């Protein structure tokens, strides 16, 4: 479930607003989008994939909200891990990451602290 949008990283491009199939975000004029309907998040990670600034954190569990400490998430190295490990955007030509979606269980384990 979407847990964090880090305003300091967000450029206000609204890619997450456009990518979200459940309309979880509301655009905000001259600012970062707002997580408006968190409970509607289906944990598809599309917002994370399309956020080139790695300003979003989606917790891998979808059953209920799990508030996160923004500082701890930034320090954890999880921001951008889904995009990288999926071989998305700037990593698309990296032979070691191409088509690595099967590795996402490793990302989920790190998020759970396992």
Q: What report would you give on this structure?
A:
The protein is of the alpha+beta class. It has one domain: Alpha-Beta Plaits. The chain has helices at about 15-20, 45-50, 70-75, 80-85, 105-110; strands spanning about 1-5, 25-30, 30-35, 55-60. It has a two-stranded antiparallel sheet. It has a two-stranded antiparallel ribbon with strand order 2-3. A hairpin with a 2-residue loop joins strand 2 (about 25-30) and strand 3. It is globular, with a radius of gyration of 14 Å. The two termini are about 20 Å apart. The mean pLDDT is about 85.
Oligomeric state of the chains?
single chain
Query: What is the terminal-to-terminal distance?
Result: 18 Å
Q: Remind me, CATH topology?
A: Alpha-Beta Plaits
Give me the number of helical elements: 5
Domain 4Fe-4S ferredoxin-type: 1-30, 31-61
InterPro entries: 4Fe4S_Fe-S-bd, 4Fe4S_Fe_S_CS, Fe-S_Ferredoxin
Protein name: Ferredoxin family protein
Pfam families: Fer4_9
């Amino acid at each position: 479930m979407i847990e964090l949008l880090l305003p300091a990283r967000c450029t206000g491009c609204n890619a997450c607003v456009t990518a979200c199939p459940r309309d979880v975000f509301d655009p905000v004029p001259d600012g970062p989008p707002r997580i408006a309907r968190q409970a509607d998040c289906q944990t598809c990670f599309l917002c994370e994939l399309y956020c080139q600034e790695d300003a979003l954190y989606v917790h891998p569990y979808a059953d209920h909200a799990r508030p996160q400490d923004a500082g701890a998430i930034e320090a954890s190295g999880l921001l951008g891990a889904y995009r990288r490990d999926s071989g998305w955007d700037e990593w698309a030509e990296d032979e070691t990451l191409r088509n690595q979606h099967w590795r996402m269980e490793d990302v989920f384990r790190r998020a759970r602290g396992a």
